[in-house]
Write a sequence for this structure.
């Protein structure tokens, strides 16, 4: 099934994301919520309507991560009021594709680039492939899965990729990580890389639940890692996140719940708990802990640390901790958006493969480039033009009877799903293996003149 045949999430989602927030489109959902849920939704909505009426209310963004580069600024109250006017009738709904996000809450990065941030700590998988102890090997794969959350404090939203958008990234050994937006409704990205030490495959999507002043984010999809030396296959089941104070107050992000890293080959698992915290100042903020559990359910290693900065293990019955991972040093001069050195590099052509990038690459998005330069107005205009072009392409496909076919991935009709992966929440997309043969050969020094992910040029 192509992305064009998937049902829209709201009456207008397929036609115009900017106007899909019609109030009447979500009352039917609320009518199915129980009395308690309806009362909660109404109470939150009434409270936010009341608070949003204060013109002099201080509305800020940032948090504890500010010292690590998180940008702190006083956002315009009028901007947040405008966003609330779009969102207030979506209480309890998944808002991923229901309205056009204003650029003032965005960062100059595409979601495909954000998916690639996990490769900042690719050395952990390289170490895992070399590791002889199976318990420590699983612990190193787990550290790789946790380390990416050190970038998750950023509260700004990346740009939704355009259908057909791609992102190519040069890896340590010269191999290429490639991500592609394979579906637009719902938004789904797929990524793949095969290095000398590991293979990484991901189908990435999220569902959300908007509850007034916060939005819960639930990752869905499938992430698989295969270590080349042992042939072991691992699956990552991530925790959930919550963006707090979306409309009123200081925006901050919490990540909480269970994370599992499953060795699908041996049956062993890492079982971690990300501690939920009630406020930005909670003493246990960032804490995570758990165990490496063997296939016979015996505990081999105790894991502990903080998802934003470090992770260690110690053997059961022994007292000495061994460091698994520590966050890389942040830029001495923090970027406006709290980017790491690695994330900054993802926006530069120096991180592109030797053969250069395709015209569909995220780095070339004009809205992203404008926002990076600090011009929100131009970024908003460019973003609107891209969204309009995408809708025009959808109409053209419908008129011609065409379907969209991703260039580098294929939907798995019979995905090789392990029994622990049966409910991944979305279709699984697999690498089609055609990149080396079909990718246009270019030069990393020659940058395409314009962003062009389009089916019809």
């Amino acid at each position: 099934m192509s992305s064009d045949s998937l049902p829209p999430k709201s009456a207008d989602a397929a036609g115009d994301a900017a106007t899909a927030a019609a109030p009447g489109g979500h009352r039917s959902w609320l009518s199915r919520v129980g009395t308690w849920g309806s009362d909660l939704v109404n109470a939150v909505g009434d409270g936010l309507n009341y608070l949003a009426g204060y013109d002099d209310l201080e509305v800020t963004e940032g948090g504890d991560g500010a010292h690590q580069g998180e940008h702190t600024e006083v956002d315009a109250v009028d901007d947040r009021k405008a966003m609330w006017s779009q969102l207030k009738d979506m209480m309890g709904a998944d808002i991923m594709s229901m309205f056009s996000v204003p650029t003032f809450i965005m960062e100059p990065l595409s979601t495909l680039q954000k998916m690639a941030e996990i490769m900042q700590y690719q050395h952990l998988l390289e170490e895992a492939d070399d590791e002889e102890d199976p318990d420590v090997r699983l612990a190193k794969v787990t550290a790789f899965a946790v380390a990416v959350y050190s970038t998750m404090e950023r509260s700004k939203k990346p740009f939704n990729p355009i259908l057909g958008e791609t992102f190519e990234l040069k890896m340590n050994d010269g191999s290429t990580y490639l991500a592609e937006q394979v579906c637009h409704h719902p938004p789904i990205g797929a990524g793949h890389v095969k290095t000398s030490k590991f293979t990484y495959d991901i189908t990435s999507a999220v569902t959300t639940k908007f509850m007034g002043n916060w939005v819960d984010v639930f990752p869905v999809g499938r992430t698989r890692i295969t270590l080349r030396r042992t042939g072991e296959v691992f699956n990552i089941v991530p925790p959930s996140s919550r963006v707090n104070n979306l409309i009123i107050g200081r925006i901050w992000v919490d990540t909480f719940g269970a994370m599992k890293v499953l060795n699908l080959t041996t049956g062993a698992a890492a079982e971690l708990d990300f501690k939920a915290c009630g406020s930005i100042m909670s003493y246990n903020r960032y804490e995570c802990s758990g165990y490496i559990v063997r296939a016979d359910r015996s505990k081999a290693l105790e894991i502990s640390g903080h998802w934003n900065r470090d992770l260690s293990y110690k053997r059961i019955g022994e007292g000495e901790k061994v460091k698994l991972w520590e966050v890389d040093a942040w830029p001495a001069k923090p970027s406006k958006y709290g980017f790491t050195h690695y994330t900054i590099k993802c926006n530069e052509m120096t991180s592109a493969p030797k053969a250069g990038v395709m015209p569909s690459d995220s780095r070339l998005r004009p809205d992203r480039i404008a926002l990076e330069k600090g011009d929100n107005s131009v970024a908003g205009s460019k973003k609107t033009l891209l969204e309009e072009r995408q809708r025009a392409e959808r109409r053209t496909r419908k008129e011609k009877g065409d379907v969209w076919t991703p260039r580098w991935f294929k939907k798995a009709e019979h995905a090789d799903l392990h029994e622990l992966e049966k409910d991944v929440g979305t279709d699984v997309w697999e690498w089609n293996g055609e990149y080396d043969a079909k990718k246009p050969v270019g030069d990393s020094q020659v940058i395409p003149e314009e962003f062009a992910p389009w089916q019809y040029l």
User: Anything to note?
Assistant: Residues 1-75 have pLDDT under 50 and may be disordered.
